[in-house]
Amino acid sequence: MAKIEIYSKTTCPYCVMAKRLFESKGQAFEEINLNLNPERTDEMVERAGGRMTVPEIFIDDKLIGGYDDLAALEQEGKLDPLLA
Hints:
Layout lengths: L3 E5 L4 H12 L5 E4 L7 H7 L8 E4 L2 E4 L1 H9 L3 H5 L1
Parallel strand pairs: 1-2
Antiparallel strand pairs: 1-3, 3-4
């Protein structure tokens, strides 16, 4: 199973959609809520190449991007191979 990490914020609808997509596929993920762990914001920005928006999604330590990037992978049939 792939290692999935999602940097999120509590009131972010795109974060909710990303989590629901992974849940619909039966995938476990680690959520790093920046509202609860603001000290990890710099970590996210560094890992995401300067991106400061949420969600920032990583699969096996590879940056996927935000929800739109995740949804595009799903639509193109490229997400499931990353999760295998």
